[in-house]
Amino acid sequence: MFDIDPKRTGFVICDMQNDFVHPDGAYAKAGQKCQAIAALPAKQKTVADAARTAGAWVISTHFTLVPGKNDEPFISEHLKNIRPFLTKGHFAPGSFGQDLINDLKPADLKVEKVAFSAFYMSRLEWVLRRAGLDTLIFCGIVTNGGVASTVRDAHVRDFKCVVLQDGCAAFSDEVHRSTIASLSTLATIATCADAVAAFEG
């Protein structure tokens, strides 16, 4: 259990987007499915609902493939190597694939990102400061990618960080567990039930 001031707290949903999670999204169509990731929305929704009821902010981050000439997306070499199926239209700004999954809507703040960390070259820190937030509770995918990078960047910006270990997942359970352990040195590790209790308390 941990204590929060809901008015100064943001529930950060990392990359729970249709192209990652929805059966009609880019990853599912390419056979990139994971049971642990598929089980997340039901748990995350309980926290999002509690956050809204308490008057906290719900923030969603959106991985984006920025289109260039002829709408061909800019894709880093690293991403091309590990996800060669990504192509034109995937994670495009304003698209179904880039959007937050319906189960977790609406978000009070939506922030596009172009790298693992949602702070990198984005407006995230600016909107968090404008909203008066000092505490961030994190969930989402993948634990060792977008979640960990964003949590670490939040920590160095002096936000108090909470990571919901059962509200995050990776394609490997072992990688998930080891990442949560590493994040415990700079964030409070809690469960979705703990977060609901904190918002209700």
Structure write-up:
With 201 residues, this protein is α/β, with parallel strands linked by helices. The protein has one domain: Rossmann fold (3-Layer(aba) Sandwich), CATH 3.40.50.850. The protein has helices spanning 18-21, 26-29, 35-38, 40-54, 77-82, 124-130, 143-156, 173-183, 192-200; strands at 9-14, 57-63, 109-113, 135-141, 160-169, 188-190. It has a 6-stranded parallel β-sheet, sandwiched between helices. The N and C termini lie close together (10 Å).
Write the layout of secondary structure elements.
Elements lengths: L8 E6 L3 H4 L4 H4 L5 H4 L1 H15 L2 E7 L13 H6 L26 E5 L10 H7 L4 E7 L1 H14 L3 E10 L3 H11 L4 E3 L1 H9 L1
Parallel strand pairs: 1-2, 1-4, 2-3, 4-5, 5-6
Helix pairs in contact: 4-9, 7-8
Q: Which strands sit side by side, in order, in the main sheet? A: 3-2-1-4-5-6
Overall CATH class: Alpha Beta
Please identify, by name, the CATH architecture. Answer: 3-Layer(aba) Sandwich
Order of helices and strands: EHHHHEHEHEHEHEH
Shape verdict:
globular
- What name goes with the CATH superfamily? Isochorismatase-like
Strand content: 15-25%
Count the domains: 1
Count of alpha and pi helical runs: 9
Q: Could you tell me the number of beta strands?
A: 6
Q: What is the CATH third-level topology name?
A: Rossmann fold
Q: Which class of secondary structure composition applies to the elements?
A: alpha/beta
**Gyration radius, rounded:** 16 Å
Amino-to-carboxy terminus distance: 10 Å
Task: State the helical fraction.
Answer: 25-40%
Flag low-confidence runs.
none
